[in-house]
Amino acid sequence: MAEIELSPETAKVLEIKPLTTDLLPAAVELDRLCLGGMWTLNGYEREHTSPNSDLLAISVPNPNGPHLVGIGCLWAILEEAHITLIAVHPQYQGQGFGQALLYHLLHRARLRQLEWATLEVRTTNQPAISLYQKFGFQEVGRRRRYYADTGEDALILWRSGLHQPEFPLTLAAWEQEISSRLQASGWLFISQ
Ligand SMILES: CC(C)(COP(=O)(O)OP(=O)(O)OC[C@H]1O[C@@H](n2cnc3c(N)ncnc32)[C@H](O)[C@@H]1OP(=O)(O)O)[C@@H](O)C(=O)NCCC(=O)NCCS
Asked: 42 lies in which domain range?
């Protein structure tokens, strides 16, 4: 993916909302860059249209069209939110975008009345493991040699309690923390 160059007047506005069709090719590129090519264009199209998926995008508005800087997706399976991917463009990592994506996925899981969230993560992916732990995910198991490319194990992480009456308060506290962090970095955050 080419280096992202932003015009100064729009550089600090961020939008988070369901991925729109115009950004599907950019999602494939971002996936290739951050996740080694997990899904093809067909895969993203399928998620985009599936009523059981929430496919979210963080983008930066720009005169030539929005720049996609982050993607996150969940599958709703019975009472479970299966988080299938989260990725932030390397130029934008470390500023709170990953947290913002995870927050919005869990918020949507709550709106869907799901009860828990789960995901797999490489045992060596410390940035992602730390991110999930911040949101209360706990290790509940391991899938041996889950990743075909390296033969690495996957940790199975689990976050329960999404349907509990106190969870909206937790969500509100996370939202406050994430907005403050983004604002401190000069980002104006718009969500839908
Ligand atoms: C994992 C990923 C999405 C995090 O995105 P990000 O925007 O950099 O994350 P944030 O800035 O929101 O950081 C949130 C938390 O994640 C953890 N984290 C992020 N980067 C980290 C790093 N380099 N080392 C350790 N922890 C890190 C920290 O807990 C951090 O909270 P803190 O800043 O208060 O310490 C990003 O690194 C990424 O896209 N990686 C490649 C794709 C990937 O591995 N996805 C996960 C697949 S399961």
From this structure: 8-98+165-191
